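Handout, section 4.2: multi-component inputs.
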Amino acid sequence: MDIHRCRFVHYPPSTINALAFSQSKITDETKTAPPRLAVGRANGDIEIWNPLSGSWLQETIIRGGKDRSIDGLVWTQDPNEEIQGETLIGKSRLFSCGYTTTVTEWDLERGVPKRHASGNHGEIWCLAAQPPLLGPAKEGEWAGQHLIAGCTDGALVLYSTQDDDLQLQKILIRPSSKKAKIISVTFKDRNIVVAGCSDSMIRIFDIRNGALLRSMSLGAGPAGGPKEIIVWTVKTLRDGTIVSGDSTGELRIWSGETYTLKQRIKSHRQDVLSLATSADGSTVITGGMDRRTVVYKQVGKGKSRWAEVSHRRYHKHDVKSMATFESKGMSVVVSGGPDAAPNVLPLSQFGLENQRALPYIPQDSIIQSSSKRRLMMSWWDREILIWRLGKFPKANANSEDEEEDPSRTRKLVAKILLKGESNITSASLSRDGTLLAVATVDDVKLFQLRNKKTEDGLRVSKIEVPSTVSSGARLIQFSPNGKWLCIVRPDSRILAARVVQEEGSFVLHRKLSKLRRIDREAPKIVLLGGLGRYDRTVSKIAFSTDSNVLVVSDLAGYMDSFVLSGEEDLSLDTPDVDEFGSASDSSDSESSSEDEEEIVIAPHKLIFGQQWLRNPSASSIPKLPSAPTIISFRPDSSAKNGHVNRVSPHPTRNNPHPISRALPTSATTPDRLFIMTACSSVFEFNVLSGSLTPWSRRNPSSILPEDFRRNRDHARGCFWNVTSEQARIWLYGVGWLWMFDLNVDFPLPNEATSTALVNGSKSKEIAETPNKKRKHKGGNEISTGAGSAIANGNLELGISRKIQKVAEGGKKQIREDIDINASPFDEMDLDTDAEGPTALERLRRGSSAGEARASGAKASWRTYKYRPILGVVVLGEEEGEAGLEVAIVERPIWEVELPPRYYGDQEWEKDGL
Amino acid sequence: MASILKRKRGGVEVLDTPKRAKSVKKENGNSTLKVDGKVDWEKAAEETSKMKELVKVNGENLTNGDAVTAVSEQPQNKNVQKKKNTKGLDAPETDAGKSIEKPSLWKLSESIAGRMSSLEPVFTADEKHLLVTTRTAVLVYTAANSLLTRSIKLHLAESEPNTRIVSFSLSPTAPEIVWVACSDGNVYRVNWMTGEGASYSWKTSSTGCNFMTVAAMESLGRRRDVVFTTEAKGDGWRVTANELTAPDDPIKTAARTIYTSKDRIRYLKTGAAGSVVVAAAGNKIIVGGLRTTEYGVVSNMKYEFRIFETSDTISSLDVKATPRPDGKDVKKSLKRTPIVDLVVGDVRGSIFLHNDLLANLMLAQDGKPGISLTPRKMHWHRQAVNAVKWSRDGNYIISGGNETVLVIWQLDTGSHQYLPHLSSTIQQIVVSPTGSSYAVQLADNSAMILSTAELTPTTNIAGIQASTIAGTQSLESEVERIGEEQWPSRLIQRTPALINPNFPSKLLLAVGQTQEIDPVNPLVTGSPYLQTFDLGTGHNASRQALSRSNVTIINSAPSAHKISEPRVTHMKISHDGKWLATVDEWTPPARDLTHLALDKNNAEEERLSRREIYLKFWEWSDEDNSWQLVSRIDAPHTLSQNSTHPGRVLDLAVDPNSSKFVTVGEDEIVCTWSTRTRKRDGVPVRGSKGQVLRNWYCQHAISLGKQEMAEDIGHIDASVAGAALAFSEDGSVLAAATSSQDGIVHFIEPNSGSIRQSQTGIFQGHLVKMDFLGQDLIVLADQLTLYDLVSNEIRMNFKLNIHLRELSIAQKQEMIHLAADLKSRTFAVSFPIRCKDLTVKKEKSLTYQQSELFIFHQDELQPQLHDILPIFITALLPAADSDGFLLLDTAAEIRTAHKKGSQILTAMAQSTSALLLDDSAEVNGVVVPTDEDEEMEDEDVQLLTPAATEDGNDDEDENDTPVVTAQQLAQVFDIGPAFALPPLEVMFYQVAGLFAGKPMVRDV
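Output:
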């Protein structure tokens, strides 16, 4: 396999401006929606992450647009309601502000703004939500959470979220003549608001009457600096204590009763920008412009004083934003800044577990290739770049004389900038490199790419698309043969459009196939509350290699599959204007009637004698344990022609144009679908029969290599290398590349010691696992949501996990070991052996398993050499001579131009690279 | 004792019951001499002679430094070799019987000055005095005037070399008592006000002792000092609590092992009257709590220990234990547990702060949730935190380390305060009892007291900053750091030293910033400073840089290597004390040049070509009391005669009669340097006061080398590594020789620069040093040869021991010393030897090197003095204004060797108590005669008698006008030259004290 290692794709990761968890604390009792993390970036994107008890899956990205940025994010939770004895969990709603006068509520299901609200006040700088009401609501009181917005002109504005609406309720504080900006705002309780201002003041207001209860002065700034201190961040603890971080680098702690300063701690050398508190009020974390993240705890007699426990530079730039999340089994603080990578720090297990930086590279690949034409496409914001990659210079062909300039092996052949404001949500390049489809949230565009006659470049011409198509999409993808374009609407409806070639140019067929997913109707009570239908958002599309099967998957883990029935017959095209018109009408009207039960697929709309039908055995594919991160069909090694076995029906008199209703079968079409989920389970289904493939039966997820299962980064993509001897799938994440050979079974764990193991991976670890209850040890994968536990020898905490007690008993000294820094998982049942390999797998393997390995084929291989991988694409596989040729695109953070820092302490790190 | 023995047999726990023993060294009548360290030469002579015999016996038994292959070429010596080969030199003896009986005519004095041990200094309770220790003595300094009040020399058993004080601590019950623990396991109870107790000790352990601390513990209504010691035990280490009582005390001495550990226990602290014991072993912290205070006797004490690990090896710790305040929320079980706040510094620079550690450990161990044991981590230091201390109120911690910065952490606000640019690594910090000042001990053999409020020094004690051998393996070695340049062969650099002829009490030394030398891998240390040490007062007089130095800047390169400093190799002063000539050399580190070199040999060549070698001439300036640089000669010599690369200066000599210096270099050229008027355009240049300025030039360059040597261009001839020069007494003859010309000594007429005569066959092997003594030329090579110029014959010839001859040339040049004293017509040589009875492993270390010293009279084969010094001599020079020699050793101690009966005019520094300025303190100190243990004592041991009556000061009964003798007055005023006198105020009080009758002070 030839590998091009490239770094020329200058994908610009965007600054994290805001972080918010939908709930910061979930106890066992609280009934609430599943938690999500929203990450707001400077380019206007909002990413929704699912903590997934430590797996951290980036589920969706709500794309922003030109000149938009997210500066503040707030989740609210509508109050729960009791309806007919069942609890209707209140809706989780996400609001943002972005240095405008507008507060935006987002529709998570569609990824678009739901509603805006603004008022006659200055730009909103900060946003905070009222704490939810605990206990029963009084008569006429709204138990939900209002929003408060602090503005640059000093105004403090209350927005009501009542009745599933967003309205300006009142302006609490009119902008004063002094125009002290309100930089940070938080609620002390449901009625008291604490606002940090840019004039060395923290002001306390009562939102019921807008009265200024107290102002607390921070005094004059330090000598030599600006006179006025900016209160960048302010938070309150559970007991009412107010903590603030300011531009002098101090954390100040104020009494919540008397509103007086209790303590100030100088721990940063530069401004404190962000601050987070644990739910029980025992820990405070600050992040600052000096890149430090500082942890404070209460110390001393009566626990009245605070002290810095430790500090460290986890980020490569300012720490702008922080959010905490605590639930059963999880306790983390997430921070972010201009280095774009969210950093997850353990909160309750601080110091005992590693921190973890989440990737700044989006989960869905933004790189595609046309292997035939050796084109590579990447996209971000409103920009698409296409390169042509040259071949490897032949090693033996006069390398000295005609050594090619390495920069000439690639060439930027096209650059497309989209008009309009919205950013690209998805783009697809057809396999032959002639068509490019681009989707934004409100448009779909199609481009034809032709070679220029004289130069290397590409001529890009726009193709008109029918208006029905052009109403925006969440995902878009060409089928491998380039005949179909699958479009997923923002509301997750699925359309398939036929690409028609006409005299050297392409158009889309006016008829669209609507593909309906199986209606897995959830109770209304679920759909109305919490996150609603959000988890049914389609996240992945996969076409079979012969383009006859289409599979989509959603965040909940449901798979829907569709088959293309009939035989292509180009003569059957009956463009009927009326029909088309009515179809387009119905497509709009149907959206309202979508909830109706529809078992029979609506009027057949044949396109060239073909139509997409739901796979008859689609319902037998079960719901996956979590959202899939990869779905991909395994190509067939014996390049079957899908058409060979299909017999066209003969035209009869009754039916001069007979239409084949034949569905593709497993025999004719490669239907083995490889699936990997967010919790690192691996399955392979025969889609058309709805069953697991023999390989998948023999190799359950639990016997995957230990190293693979312990990987914390999700798989982001895959490519295949299938020949008659091997069926290799190459999976890659941000920092790893794994190969599995699906012709070879993984060694069973108890065989592992006897047989030569996979690439020298640690056989001991695997050998320990079989059929035993795994014990919690240092370095195990179980943690509170951040990195793994730090091994005892590497603890830098200053105290070990265990203490030894030595007492004199009689004549001997008695020693006993005591665990003091016990992990919260020690009590949890770690009975993971349920998924351990059983006799069943062994039985399924029969005797053939051993032979395959005896032939010397490796079941797996890995490398961590490439990182961070922005994407891997296949090039020039058509030639098929030297095997596969791939390009691995990396995007290291040190090559990213970060904004200049105000404070250049310890900059040598950068020079060293 | 019997009872103890019984317990010893029966009991299991009492392992090493301390025995009250007299120190091994025998007392002779003048016990007071030793007690207060007073120097009376006549009596000290007897004292030391006896001592020396002992040493000799030891020498025969223990050290077999058999340097002796006697080669006597003198016809009159028909002596039989009878004496055991104990010496580095074989001294031919005239008569076997006599020679053994014959007492030495010379003797060694007690040492003065000395290296302060890296132990926490001790403030006395009233903060008026600061106690520090050297290897064998406790020094009491007065805080008000930085003067040495008393030097209490412990009477250590000489059974083991390198016995030293390992810990000392003020008794919490009696403010005048200091407990001192030595590495051989003996614990002394010393009264620092009187100096009593230096000769009595309790043997707490046979395996030695490595740390000690004292707590006042109360049980059953009795408060007593409990001495906690740590020592090796089997394959581990243990902590023992001892109650040490006088033999006549009804309460018996008792001991109990309270903890044993596999790791070496380095630190031990107690808090809350011994109810909390904290120890550190490696990276483990051991916290012990006393179970009950109702134990009665120490042997019933019971502790409960909890042990946990920190991230790194612990380099310092401090504990603050305060009683738990009564509160409602205090749990019953914790009521008795004090609040233990612990601060721990480690070798990588982290400081961890544990609040209320003991209680939290107890709660966490009971499984109580919500107890956070995570300590606060404070990281400022980059390297080991050598010292960390709590402030008295617990609101601050004070720390220091290699960064030479004192850091004061305000705990509540997280802010730091710094006191940067201290002169050297901070080794110890102590907070005074009232918290009003800090005592800081630095690695350059100095200590100071800083006021807490202004951080200004109020007291400064500085000793000799010559290099010393590090006593213990430093904790820094636990951390892997980038290696620095080492000597290829293990050696101790000589310290260039001389006496200013104008001020005979002033000793000039070339010293470096780091003084402690690793005994296993000695680094090449730079010595860029000139320290002027006043022998009369025992004080540092001044310090100035002789070459570039890194004192106030970060002394490490970006690659974390230390920036090396030039090394002053030779130093000479003109006869009038006006001119000082120094030679310093600096070689760039090899790692900086590897990129330039083609291969390995070439790299060395590149290094040599980039050496910086300077000859500098300094003039004494009375105005600012310092040496002013007048002329700097860059590369006075070249690598070889045809080379242009700078070459080493191998020797420097000064004309005893005129302002003339002579150098010889690797190029085998002798250059004479002379001064002339500095002229600009023919007009003499005048200084600010109208005096004519002078500069230095090379008057003659006399080549000694054969001409054929010139053919080897660029070839590094290793044999030229040795060369020596010597001026005759009258300056008329200059002798010059190099190793490359075997045995040839050239005699040069210095004024004309012509070689008058070349004499062959005078020496063999590596030439180390030459000197003139009258008409005799002393040549030290592989033999020690005395060559009479007048009669042209070799008068003495001693062959060096084979071990000495096998040393490398660098080792010989650095470690063999020769000095000639014209006044007494004697010369002294010293050689390195090593203790033979030690294991092979230890032999690799310089710690077990000793020095053998011989003093010969010009006309006698029999050495006037032969002695083996337990520590290593780094400089040997004739005393300026009297007979005898000065010796500087690796403990930074100075001794004199002089003829018995003669008195060195240069008064050596003495403590003020030794001067009897406040003598009645001793007079009142009536020591109770004590009974000795039957097994231990010798019959002829004399009991301690009331001290200090020989000065006629027994006027304690007289209540009227005191009689002040002239001698007393002399002792106030005649303690040194005028410049070395203590401040006028002090002297006034001293005189007034004499006349004021009963001194008001008992506390000195």
